[in-house]
Design goal:
CATH topology of the largest domain: Ribosomal Protein L4, Chain: A
CATH architecture of the largest domain: 3-Layer(aba) Sandwich
Strand order of the largest sheet: 2-1-3-6-4-5
Number of strands: 6
CATH class of the largest domain: Alpha Beta
Oligomer: single chain
């Protein structure tokens, strides 16, 4: 399929051919869900922990005598039933990550790109570069375009001036092609790809 190419001044810059197997697939929500859950699980720190009875600091002395108190016998203040004692089977530091086949990850990324194309939220630009890292200049251009929250994916490297200018704009993310992922594509309203990004993504996802 053919798609129009524009620049950040909203002027036409020709057309580009998009691979139907990457940008024209049927949207499978199950694949998108699996990919997002996989990404978010990997991001979890997994540092939550609770002290068990052997980790709680305190005396090892028997809190009171065995008999004659009218209460249940106790051997230590660090037992789980005592106030301030240890936790039974509490959370321990561990990784939440799980494996997802490479074929599924690739298919999910192709589906995410296709969903943006199907919704009319995929924009192709000739390049994403600025001569000066001026946030005000870029913000003014984006305001005229009316894209809303936006993810811009460039080629192998992001233009440094463009990245610096975009850093202070709320709702604007900039990634190189190798960083393209399902979660970031779907969390923003508009997906903007440069011509270099389109070419490299098509080579990567074939």
């Amino acid at each position: 399929m053919k798609a129009p190419v524009i620049n950040f001044d909203n002027k036409s810059a020709g057309d580009i051919e998009l691979d139907d197997e990457i940008f024209g697939m049927p949207v499978r929500r199950d694949l998108l869900s699996r990919a997002i859950n996989w990404q978010l699980a990997k991001r979890q720190a997994g540092t939550h922990a609770a002290k068990e009875r052997w980790e709680v600091s305190g005396t090892k002395k028997k809190p009171f005598k065995q008999k004659g108190t009218g209460g249940a016998r106790q051997g230590t203040l660090r037992a789980p039933q005592m106030r301030g004692g240890g936790i039974v089977f509490g959370p321990r530091p561990h990784s939440h990550a799980f494996s997802l086949p490479k074929k599924v990850r690739k298919l999910a990324l192709r589906t995410a790109l296709s969903s943006k194309q199907a919704d009319g939220k995929l924009i192709i630009v000739d390049n994403a570069s600025l001569t000066d890292p001026k946030t005000g200049v870029l913000a003014k251009q984006l305001g005229k375009l009316g894209w809303g929250t936006t993810l811009v994916i460039d080629g192998a490297q992001v233009n440094e001036n463009f990245a610096r200018a975009a850093r202070n704009i709320h709702g604007l993310d900039v990634l190189p092609q190798i960083g393209a992922n399902v979660y970031d594509i779907l969390r923003r309203d508009t997906l903007v790809l440069t011509k270099d990004a389109v070419q490299q993504l098509q080579e990567r996802l074939k």
